[in-house]
Amino acid sequence: MLGAVVAPTGRRYLGVDANPDMLAAARKLDAGLRFLEADITRDPIPGRFDTLTLLGNALAHFTVRDMDGLLRARRANVRLGSTFVVDYLDLVAMFWQNTWRRVRVTTKVRGKITHRARLVDLERGTIDLRATPSTRRWTLDWSHAIWSPFILEMLMRHHGWLLLHRSPPRPKKGARKIPESHVDVYRLEATRRD
C-alpha cells in the first residue's frame, strides 16, 4: 500500500476507495493512516493535496467519462503545480500487437482462475469480463476500461495537466515483451479548457 511508503516521510496521506472491503484490508496494512469511503469520481473529498495517485488497477474501473468526472471533482483538492501519478494498462497496444488474450488463466495460491472476455463495447470503452475459479464456487462479472497513453494524455491535457514523465512499458513478470503497464506523471499547469 502506498500509505506504508508515504507515512515514514512525515507527509499526510488520505486513501480513498468506494469499496469498504478494500478499505478494511488497507487499514490492516496501514494502521494509523487516514482512509475515506467515497467515490473519487464525484464525492467531495476534504483537503488540498500536492499529489494525487491512481495506482494498481484503479484506472481499469474508470471509463473516459468517469475519469473526466474525477478530474472535475478533484479540481477542488489541488492547486497549480500539483502532481498526478497514474498507473494503467495499455490495452490498445495489446489489441494492436495481438497480445490480448480472450481467455487467460492465472494461478493463485488456492488454484486457477479463468478470465474470459465476453464483450468489447467500444461505445463505452470497456471490455466485459468473467472470472471463474477452478472450484467454480463463485463467478465475478466486471468491466475493464480500455486505456492507452494517447487517450489518457489527451484527457489530462484537456483539464490542464501536462505530462512530465511516462515510464517505458513494463511487461508483466514472465510475459513476453508486451507494452502492458505505464506510469505517467502529470503536473497541473493551467485551468481547464472548455
Number of strands: 10
Round the Cα radius of gyration to an integer and report it: 18 Å
This entry's quaternary arrangement is single chain
The H-and-E topology, N to C, reads as HEHEEHEHEEEEHEE
Label the overall shape.
globular
Low-confidence stretches: none
Proportion of helical residues:
10-25%
Give me the side-by-side strand order of the main sheet.
Answer: 3-4-10-9
Describe this structure in words.
It is a single chain. With 194 residues, the protein is α+β, with helices and mostly antiparallel strands. The chain has a single domain (39-188), classed as Vaccinia Virus protein VP39 (Rossmann fold). Helix 3 (64-73) packs parallel to helix 5. The protein has a 4-stranded mixed sheet, with helices on one face. Strands 5-6-7-8 form a 4-stranded antiparallel sheet, with no helix packed on it. Strands 1-2 form a two-stranded parallel sheet. It has helices at 2-6, 20-29, 64-73, 91-96, 149-158, and strands at residues 14-17, 34-37, 51-54, 83-89, 103-108, 111-121, 126-133, 140-145, 161-166, 181-188. Strand 6 and strand 7 (126-133) form a beta hairpin. The chain contains 5 helices and 10 strands. The protein is 21% helix and 33% strand.
